[in-house]
Amino acid sequence: MSEERQRPEDAPKGIYGPDGEPIFFAEPGVDRMMAVIMNLASELWVERERYLPLDSDRDAEAKAFIDRVFAPLRERKE
Amino acid sequence: MTLELQHAMKATPTADEAARGRFVSGIRSFILNDLAADLGHAYQTRAAPKFRAANGHDPKTSGDAHKALRGDPAFNIYSSMRVQAQKMVWASVSAGVERDAKRLAELEAQTAGQPGSVQLKPDFIPPRNASAVDVHLMPGSYTGGEGMAAGAVYDRGLAVFSMGLMGSNLDDIGLSMAAYIKRRYPEFAPTAMLDTGCTIGHNSLPWKHAYPEAKLTAIDVAAPGLRYGSTRAKLQGVEADFVQMASDELDFPDASFDLVFSSMFLHELPKKVRAKTIAEAYRVLRPGGLMLHMELPPNGQMAPFEAFYLDWDSYYNNEPYYKGYRDEDPKAVCESGGFGADDYFQFVVPSIGIYGDEAVTQAATSDAAHAVGAETTGRLAEGVMWFGFGAWKR
Ligand SMILES: C[S@@+](CC[C@H](N)C(=O)[O-])C[C@H]1O[C@@H](n2cnc3c(N)ncnc32)[C@H](O)[C@@H]1O
């Protein structure tokens, strides 16, 4: 990408870090940790899928895996 | 949930790549349904009351809702995960596209003689809105990479991104829009149609199915998608001419089309370019012709939270012009392009792939269905509805 950054004209101050990435958590490292956690979960799922029986419903298994692993992030339990 | 495209240029993923794509579609579904519900609840119970206490009034605009949500834990989790999931979308398809480069080039060569064409202009310089920003975090944007790669990345990435909600060839918007227009205006019979900002033509092709007698031209500023899209169209047996051209400087004579349309396009244009695009559409339309745009619904017709929910992409998904577009009044934009105030119309059409033919017919034949449904319109989650607006040229 180019050095130039195009941003919405009314972007509030302070929502991007010095590297141009958006910042959400008060401690910006947490945003990066979140990305690491998602990458790890994805890698783990790839390993998991290798051992699933051929006739399994992989989409449903993936959904159950994601719901289980990320459940602590939900505010309202269903 | 995971979508396998139904054409010959589709991905041929290794087992690991398929698993990775499945995870990304799944995590997006978790974010856009489950975490989005938490976000809505957090807005009502925490963010909006806090805003009210500090400002003496409820959030009134998308910008107010944004301010209210910044710093809320549910907003932080939703947003941080959505950004990473978007990066994972593109990452999940890049190796497969690289591996398939030769096969895609062979398909292009094999179909070279089939009806349809692609015209690229070697000296054409794509505008910076399409080349100098990684739009929706897509590395290299529409113009980067080798050969047709950017087109293939877009097609395969969108397949992962769509979670199966955008049609089997990512053509649900085109299918829904064309079906709506055909049913609402049964006497309309175009002979020449122009899609502006077609990318890979996925939503252009349904219009040729709807009006097989009409000639279809699809333009874009980015060469990789045009090359890829032309081959993709030929492989599906659809005749179309793909041309490298900017929507704000159309190289067509006045009054040369009956239909000028676009999908998810106007929000990627800087304001001045967008205004010129509408004026150019007016110029190249014949009297009695129709300009039609499928787009995100305007902020002026939505409640603050719902408005910001869509505007999120502008700030955090590299869509710099999206908020400016959504703040505009589409009717006023059409009028400033030359269309008459009485010739404007807008509508919401249910996704034909999800709700079926009958639902589209119902929307097209009842005026009651024309309000912007604040809840789900424009969102890619359960309950997909598409917003469209347009104007007739007298
Ligand atoms: C989000 S994509 C459009 C998607 C597509 N129409 C669909 O139905 O999903 C936006 C496209 O607009 C193109 N574009 C940007 N500026 C343009 C301009 N001035 N004229 C024509 N195309 C342009 C980009 O290259 C990109 O392919």
Question: Considering the protein shown, what is the CATH homologous superfamily of the domain at 172-392 in chain B?
Answer: Vaccinia Virus protein VP39
CATH topology of the domain at 172-392 in chain B: Rossmann fold
Low-pLDDT stretches of chain A are: none
User: Which structural category do the helix and sheet elements of chain B fall into?
Assistant: alpha/beta
Structure description:
The complex is a heterodimer of chains A (78) and B (394). Chain A has 78 residues and is an all-alpha fold. Chain A has a domain at 26-74. Chain A contains two helices and no strands. The model of chain A has no long low-confidence stretch (mean pLDDT 92). The mean pLDDT of chain B is 95. Chain B is of the alpha/beta class and 394 residues long. In chain B, 48% of the residues lie in helices and 13% in strands. In chain B, strands 1-4-3-2-5-6-8-7 form an eight-stranded mixed beta sheet, with helices on both faces. Chain B has a domain at 172-392: Vaccinia Virus protein VP39 (Rossmann fold, 3-Layer(aba) Sandwich), CATH 3.40.50.150. The chains are: A mainly alpha (78), B alpha/beta (394). Chains A and B meet through helix 1 and helix 2 of A and helix 1, helix 2, helix 3, helix 10 and helix 11 of B. The complex binds S-adenosylmethionine. S-adenosylmethionine binds at residues 127, 129-130, 142, 173, 196-199, 202-203, 219-222, 225, 246-248, 263-265, 268-269, 273 of chain B.
Give a brief rundown of this model:
The complex is a heterodimer of chains A (78) and B (394). With 78 residues, chain A is an all-alpha fold. Chain A has helices at residues 29-50, 58-69.
